[in-house]
Automatic annotation (TrEMBL):
Pfam families reported in the protein's UniProt record: Acetyltransf_1
Species of provenance: Streptomyces kurssanovii
Keywords: Acyltransferase, Coiled coil, Transferase
Name recorded for this polypeptide: GNAT family N-acetyltransferase
Cited CDD domains: NAT_SF
Coiled-coil segments: 13-40
Keyword Coiled coil attributed: yes
N-acetyltransferase domain sequence ranges: 1-156
């Protein structure tokens, strides 16, 4: 059901990234191209990794796109899950849990001590799903982001 993404998966990953952005009411912010994803996942120095969830018939049901982070407190890497998406018609079939299980397995196998991600506050179906797996919100932290003009201004 779960496999490591291959270069041939880039078009469907790109498609699902856009589906996820639409679900999150932010399609206008999803500007990544297939070429950018291909470079990030399969270029000379991959910066991100992906896994694909498939149905028994080989249909792509969803994906997880992730990268390594590092904890100075723990002294080891962890996984930051950037995107977890299962197509609406295929939800409830265990694909999301299988993707998270694979990432947890990678963490355990490699000695990583954290698997982290963000979820929109209004996304209660996902929040309920994550809590059912034992994940807990880190509500004492607030995410900050510099982008667009503010990033360019500060970096100039």
């Amino acid at each position: 059901m779960i496999r490591t993404a291959a270069p041939a998966d880039v078009p469907v990953i790109h498609e699902m990234v856009r589906e996820l952005a639409e679900y999150e009411k932010a399609l206008h912010e999803a500007n990544a191209t297939e070429e950018q994803l291909r470079e990030a996942l399969f270029g000379e120095r991959p910066a991100a990794f992906a896994h694909i969830a498939e149905t028994e018939d080989g249909e792509v049901a969803g994906f997880a796109l992730w990268f390594l982070n590092f904890s100075t407190w723990r002294g080891v890497h962890g996984i930051y899950l950037e995107d977890l998406y299962v197509r609406p018609a295929l939800r409830g079939g265990g694909h999301g849990k299988a993707l998270l299980t694979e990432l947890a397995r990678i963490c355990v196998e490699r000695g990583y001590e954290r698997l982290e991600w963000s979820v929109l506050n209004w996304n209660t179906p996902s929040i309920d799903f994550y809590r059912s797996l034992g994940a807990r919100p880190q509500d004492e932290w607030t995410v900050y982001r510099l982008t667009d003009g503010a990033l360019k201004s500060l970096g100039a």
